[in-house]
Amino acid sequence: MSSVNPTPARAGDAVIEVRDVRYTIGGRVIFDGLDITARRGRITAFMGPSGTGKTTLLRLITGQSYAERGNVKVFGEEVSKMSTNELFDLRRRMGMLFQNGALLTDLDVYENVAFPVRAHTRLPEPLVRQLVLTKLHAVGLRGAARLMPSELSGGMARRVALARAIVMDPEILIYDEPFVGLDPISMGVICRLIKQMNEALGITSIVVSHDVQELASIAHDSFLLSGGRVVASGTPEELNRSEVPEVRQFMGGLADGPVAFHYPAADYRAELLDEAAP
Amino acid sequence: MNAVADSLPVMALRRIGSMSLFLVQILARTGPALLRPALIVRQIYNAGARSLVIIMLSGMFVGMVLGLLGFDVFQRFGSEDYVGVLAALGNLKVLGPVLTALLFAGRAGTSLTSEIGLMKSTEQLTAMQMMAVDPVRYVVVPRFLGGCIAMPLLSATFTLIALYGAQLIGVQQMGVDAGAYWSQTQNAVDLHDVWEGVVKSLVFGIAVSLVAVYEGYHAESTPEGVGLATTRTVVTSSVLVLLLNYLLTAAFLTTK
């Protein structure tokens, strides 16, 4: 697939560049002055408390939403200036793993993995079969090929989705909250797979999550988002040593801090004593 | 300014506009979608074959009621032989296509809307977009075409069974002479009447299928959103079918 890229690819090149991005939804500022870089062949983690726009950032990178200001470049090309066809070409070089797997519920596991292959190529059936079985074997679910998505556990569904995401050999693999709602064993499996995909296939990986421990074990670079911008970046160890209050609160899992425990409200005493209020 | 923009006629107009644009999108992708006929055949089965039982049962009852009603009315004028004419014209021109379309909206339309709505809320449509696959082409168009093809077939089935039901009551139970029943019917019904039913069932099929896929594709990605969209499918397509029925009936009368 890398032959599509006109410039020779080198490990460490910036594959995704987000510069000074501002994005609002319904007047609420989600990002303001956001700067992020993800490098080729590395696992980059976007961390942050819930509601900081981690998933929105993925939407900007994949061209599902556009920033009001600033640049979002993938493989050196501005995403917002792409035509629909160019965007689809870009997405063929990316794989994405959704929070709940997003498997097509009317197709079985095998057909789900085969879906992108059938949609984009006219490969003969034996070759499709080989491709699908190889990828299913890589995630350990070759034996589940004929199960329907409703028969899979959450962890299995995500592994099938991972097989589907890598079946077209993408250059970038995006994981949206891959650990949410998984038991420790499934979490360990997903963690290992993310690492394997990165090491064995050299896939540039973006992991969006708030599971600090899991990310620390696999990520090369981390960005901590809070209040619409990056409050800290570096290796997981560097973030752990950081003295910035937002970072300390997030990495330490403290209930109160810069991200307040209480949602903004009127004065507690005044509200309790005010009987007229609803 | 906002009051004007939110007023009912403006909102209705906006919906009609957005639905028309969606139809253009669907038509533009119909050619490529025809390259994968298996997807369409499956949807004809889903929308058509799975609605057969309810359509056949309803057709039978409607035909039987027409037989009873016709006998009751014509008996008062001593012209029971005309029961067949009423049943045939009523079914072919109006009841067959309209009732089939209403049942189709309730049975197949709601399932189309909720299926597409649920695919949207579970991110399946976004996942397709991320795989560089156009969800309108792969999800919407086969379902739309399946509905458009299934509806006239169902309408024909409904009409045939209703004619049999009317005959069952008129001739077998009430004792109208079979020869008179069928010859009067044959004399009164011409090809123009049959065409009216065929055209109506085609138009209603397009209308109900379009409303169903539109509502599903534009449903809000929440359980309430999918529920609301399903309700809107039934309400909108029912009213649309009755309105179109009036317009088409009037048009066929003037062209006779």
Question: What does the model show?
Answer:
The complex is a heterodimer of chains A (278) and B (256). Chain A has 278 residues and is an alpha/beta fold. Chain A has a domain at 2-93 and 199-273: Rossmann fold (3-Layer(aba) Sandwich), CATH 3.40.50.300. In chain A, 36% of the residues lie in helices and 23% in strands. Chain A is built from ten helices and ten strands. Chain A has helices spanning 54-61, 84-92, 109-120, 125-138, 154-166, 184-201, 212-218, 236-241, 245-252, 268-273, and strands at residues 14-25, 28-39, 43-47, 69-74, 77-78, 94-97, 172-176, 204-208, 221-226, 229-234. A six-stranded mixed beta sheet of chain A has the order 6-7-8-3-9-10, with helices on both faces. A four-stranded antiparallel beta sheet of chain A has the order 2-1-4-5, with helices on one face. In chain A, a hairpin with a 2-residue loop joins β9 and β10. In chain A, α6 (184-201) runs parallel beside α7 (212-218). Mean pLDDT of chain A is 84; it is low at 1-7. With 256 residues, chain B is an all-alpha fold. Chain B has one domain. Helices cover 87% and strands 0% of the residues of chain B. The model of chain B has no long low-confidence stretch (mean pLDDT 92). At the A-B interface, α2 and α3 of A face α6 of B.
